[in-house]
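Protocol step 4 of 6: structure prediction from sequence.
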Amino acid sequence: MRIVSIIGARPQFVKAAPLSRALRRAGHTEFLVHTGQHYDPNMSDIFFEELDIPRPDVNLCVGSGLHGAQTGTMLARIEEVLVREKPERVLVYGDTNSTLAGALAAAKLHIPVAHVEAGLRSFNRAMPEELNRVVADHLSDILLCPSRTAVENLRAEGLTRGVHLVGDVMYDAVLQFTERAEERSTILKNLELESKGYLLATVHRAENTDDPARLQSIIEAFSEIEEPVVFPIHPRTRKIIAEQAGDESALADNVRAIDAVGYLDMLMLERHARMILTDSGGVQKEAYWLGVPCVTLREETEWVETVEAGWNRLVGADAKRIVEAVKLTQPLEEARVPLYGDGQVAERCLRVLESHDITPSMNIIQ
């Protein structure tokens, strides 16, 4: 089987690592396309090194830009690759502009599309990610869902054919790389951090970074927390903070701004934090799997199961709610229920892709 896999952003590199390994181990041919959506070395190159992902066969070097221009450029360049490579399947991940462009280019060429992480919904159409995932799902022939909720979301939109409940491939990555992170990462030592002696914060979504009032409220909340807050700053977020406040030196003394970090360092920071504050979907899940309480800086989440399990609180960008959540949230004593798979999701996705079966799957897992 010849597959073109399209990736372009940090979360997609993590998702692609286990499935790319499974495809190649099974003897299939994978042509890896990097759109260049994330191009900062700490957001791109280091992930290929740490996760043992083969170097992309082509980097489209699209870079940043307005959504329409970025997606349009990707669409044109991906189409050229697909016409040349003639794959049997196109594999897309998640909800970025790279996802949308890959699915659209393949669908227009009548190449079957498989969407990893299908069926997620925030029901907030103001989010560009929501538009990307909805369109990608409706263009896809094989929909690889991480949860029952995702399956039901697709059913509500009339999508039942080709829907497979497989779990979340990011859990495979957490299981595969956490011990490697413990062995190789020196981030805690370098930053002189004590395990459970700090909070970890990430902010990158446009709904927070592009709204000055929301971003300012979040930053104010960080300054009011009476604990150290380690804040790896996404390059785009850093630029916006600099435009608003001069530079990140305007942050309070308890907020430690650092550059974006690689996957292994991030796993270590997550695993040893007392609590995580984030607007990232992937970090919400990683917090749950690692047993770290999470406060989500959004009004909604696609990963509703983490909230229902009591390990995730939705607080939006309201400073008072954020500070109160930090004070009130503690680790739960009861065991966490299994969510989003069993660590064998990549193999399950592989079997679906190999079967060429796009009828609804009866494989139901936690």
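Step 5 (inspection) to follow. The CA atoms of residues 162 and 169 lie 18 Å apart.
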